[in-house]
């Protein structure tokens, strides 16, 4: 791991810490420590306003190259930003998908026109994005997507038909990036396109999915002749898989540090409660808290080791491939720890809009961590086959 902080970096630390202290108050006090896993739906409009506040202060796209309007901050300064943001109780970023996934993808694969059209709106906290990957028969097996994109030569548009599922915050997003088949009869990774789809149109129906928590962060999205302009396909028809994998590489890049800062806040809340209600006197609880602390440190050091290694344009290195399996298992176990620290209170639901405390919500939501984004079983196959080079499991002939 090649990471250290210079005197200039510490000046940067004071700059962001002071800015957060001055601005994450007053009208934004209510969103401190909100918007984490299982809480993304809460105070969304207030967090949208916060995105614009961040943009005004020059705190969006801090790692983007200056040519695209970013600050061009070093890795070290980006780490500092996430550290101070978490310490101040900065809310979960409403613009994470756009800033952390769509923008780097457009910088790497998009046309000049696409970069000029979308990047400023993302940077300014003006447009928000969701992800159109998973389908009922293509969750962990992304290459099995069946959503179709057919080019209409008369209208000079693409027509999108199919269904996506588990689409986080689709109900409040302006745009969605969608993987769809551009070649009829194509299978697997071939014949896919990567589309940028405007959500506010008659051909799109968003249906919320009620979760265990009583909320509806996830959605089904149905496309029925939804229109996509010809300049809203990234790359060429058939490039979809390559671009989709490139985006997943960005998903496990610097934005992982922001995720880990949210995890740190959750762990601190559990520790605070354990001290308050006496659960910390239980040796087994103390041991599990220590294990959680060590696991989070391992997660952080591994992420920084990966980020400070030689960058690759596309694809995941071996260390990155392990990340999803590691964090999802750790976070699920943190949810278990939360309800054990709560004790009998974990079984009590209070009256209210949803009736669940943040730690109860944490427990319920983390049941999904080892499923979405690739199940733990699939992640182990990926590690075995792609990272370790082991032979693939035998598959029956179709």
UniProtKB/TrEMBL annotation:
Keyword match Flavoprotein: yes
Residues annotated as domain Acyl-CoA dehydrogenase/oxidase C-terminal: 238-387
Domain Acyl-CoA dehydrogenase/oxidase N-terminal, first and last residues per copy: 7-126
Keyword set includes Oxidoreductase: yes
Keywords in alphabetical order: FAD, Flavoprotein, Oxidoreductase
Cofactor(s) the protein requires to work: FAD
Domain of life: Bacteria
Domain Acyl-CoA oxidase/dehydrogenase middle: 130-225
Pfam families the record matches: Acyl-CoA_dh_1, Acyl-CoA_dh_M, Acyl-CoA_dh_N
InterPro entries recorded: Acyl-CoA_Oxase/DH_mid-dom, Acyl-CoA_Oxase/DH_mid-dom_sf, AcylCo_DH-like_C, AcylCo_DH/oxidase_C, AcylCoA_DH/ox_N, AcylCoA_DH/ox_N_sf, AcylCoA_DH/oxidase_NM_dom_sf, Mycobact_Acyl-CoA_DH
PANTHER family: ACYL-COA DEHYDROGENASE (PTHR43292), ACYL-COA DEHYDROGENASE FADE29 (PTHR43292:SF3)
Family (UniProt): Belongs to the acyl-CoA dehydrogenase family.
Protein name (Swiss-Prot/TrEMBL): Acyl-CoA dehydrogenase family protein
Native source species: Microbulbifer spongiae
Taxonomic lineage from the root: Bacteria, Pseudomonadati, Pseudomonadota, Gammaproteobacteria, Cellvibrionales
């Amino acid at each position: 791991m090649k990471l250290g902080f210079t005197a200039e970096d510490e000046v940067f630390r004071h700059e962001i810490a002071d800015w957060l202290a001055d601005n994450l108050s007053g009208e934004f006090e209510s969103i401190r420590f909100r918007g984490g896993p299982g809480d993304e739906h809460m105070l969304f409009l207030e967090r949208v306003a916060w995105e614009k506040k961040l943009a005004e202060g020059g705190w969006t796209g801090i790692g983007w190259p200056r040519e695209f309007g970013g600050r061009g901050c070093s890795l070290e300064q980006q780490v500092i930003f996430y550290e101070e943001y978490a310490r101040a109780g900065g809310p979960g970023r409403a613009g994470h998908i756009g800033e952390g996934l769509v923008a780097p993808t457009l910088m790497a694969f998009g046309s000049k026109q696409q970069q000029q059209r979308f990047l400023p709106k993302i940077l300014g906290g003006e447009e928000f994005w969701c992800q159109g990957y998973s389908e009922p028969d293509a969750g962990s097996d992304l290459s099995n997507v069946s959503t179709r994109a057919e080019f209409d030569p008369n209208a000079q548009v693409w027509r999108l038909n199919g269904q996506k599922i588990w689409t986080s915050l689709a109900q409040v997003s302006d745009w969605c990036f969608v993987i769809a088949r551009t070649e009829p009869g194509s299978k697997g990774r071939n014949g896919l396109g990567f589309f940028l789809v405007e959500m506010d149109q008659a051909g799109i129906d968003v249906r919320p999915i009620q979760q265990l928590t009583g909320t509806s962060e996830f959605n089904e999205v149905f496309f029925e002749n939804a229109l996509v302009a010809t300049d809203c396909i990234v790359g060429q028809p058939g490039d979809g898989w390559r671009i989709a994998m490139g985006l997943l590489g960005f998903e496990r890049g610097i934005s992982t540090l922001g995720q880990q800062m949210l995890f740190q806040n959750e762990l601190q809340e559990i520790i605070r409660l354990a001290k308050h209600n006496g659960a910390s006197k239980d040796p087994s609880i103390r041991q599990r808290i220590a294990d959680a602390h060590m696991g989070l440190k391992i997660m952080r050091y591994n992420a920084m080791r990966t980020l400070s290694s030689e960058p690759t344009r596309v694809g995941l290195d071996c260390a990155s491939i392990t990340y999803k399996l590691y964090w999802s298992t750790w976070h699920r176990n943190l949810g278990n720890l939360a309800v054990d620290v709560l004790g009998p209170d974990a079984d009590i639901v209070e009256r209210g809009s949803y009736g669940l405390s943040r730690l109860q919500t944490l427990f319920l939501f983390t049941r999904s961590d080892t499923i979405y984004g690739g199940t733990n079983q699939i992640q182990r196959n990926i590690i075995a086959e792609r990272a370790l080079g082991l032979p693939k499991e035998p598959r029956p002939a179709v």
